[in-house]
Structure to design on (248 residues):
């Protein structure tokens, strides 16, 4: 088979596709059935929330997974993917790994991974995970200097993208299956333990800003914000263009 052609195999219950390069692993995965996964060495059109550019250079893990879902869990799925990344990173020896709502995995104040959720077909969701491993995002985009961190920077020994794929997909499947079975409480508490709270934040909405204390998420994945008077409000990811951690 030509090395440039997609290669498929079975990987611990997943139909697994490998590509040298692709525009977007999420878009490739859009046509696949449940429990399919796609990994590419590079993406030419990697994207984040609101179609922001995501640098996807060689040496990073660019992975998309197709999972079955119940309608009530759609906004929570990116959080489960973030939890899966945190679990695997900690098992490898990473410290200070946390979540930043709604779709980032951080090490202290630098970004380790991002999650992109797409809902192309009823009953199916595509969860894209971009994880910095040994790639060089700041070389591709100078604005990422001192903003991004890689597993190569924080682990005691190097790890290959191939070695990360199986444990990450296994963890993600276990979490999604638990959520789809309605095991909400435990998963919600595990996610809410990863925010490194309390944390002062500012939300940029559509022409409006809100400030307050981040108070975790509810079972729909909505951000809970408490103002200085103790009044709470909730916001879904589509409402929030940007979350800024103010460190007050």
């Amino acid at each position: 088979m030509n090395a440039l052609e997609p290669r498929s195999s079975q990987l611990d219950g997943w139909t697994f596709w490998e590509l040298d390069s692709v525009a977007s692993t999420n878009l490739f995965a859009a046509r696949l059935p449940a429990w399919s996964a796609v990994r590419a060495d590079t993406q030419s059109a990697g994207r984040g929330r609101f179609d922001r550019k995501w640098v996807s250079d060689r040496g990073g893990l660019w992975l998309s997974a197709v999972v079955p879902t119940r309608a009530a869990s759609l906004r929570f799925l990116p959080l489960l993917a973030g939890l899966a990344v945190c679990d695997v990173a900690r098992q490898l020896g990473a410290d200070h790994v946390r979540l930043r709502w709604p779709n980032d995995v951080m090490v202290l104040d630098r970004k380790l991974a991002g999650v992109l959720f797409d809902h192309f077909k009823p009953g199916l969701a595509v969860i894209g995970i971009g994880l910095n491993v040994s790639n060089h995002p700041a070389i591709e985009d100078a604005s990422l200097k001192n903003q991004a961190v890689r597993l190569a920077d924080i682990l005691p020994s190097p790890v290959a993208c191939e070695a990360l794929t199986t444990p990450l997909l296994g963890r993600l499947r276990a979490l999604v299956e638990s959520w789809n079975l309605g095991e909400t409480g435990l998963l919600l508490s595990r996610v809410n333990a990863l925010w490194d709270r309390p944390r002062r934040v500012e939300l940029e909405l559509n022409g409006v800003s809100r400030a307050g204390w981040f108070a975790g998420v509810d079972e729909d994945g909505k951000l809970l914000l408490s103002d200085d008077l103790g009044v709470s409000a909730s916001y879904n990811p589509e409402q929030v263009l940007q979350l800024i951690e103010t460190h007050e």
Remarks:
- The domain at 199-245 is CATH 2.30.30.100 (SH3 type barrels.).
- The helical segments are 25-29, 77-91, 137-140, 151-154, 161-180, 184-192.
- The first helix runs from residue 25 to 29.
- The first strand starts at residue 7 and ends at 11.
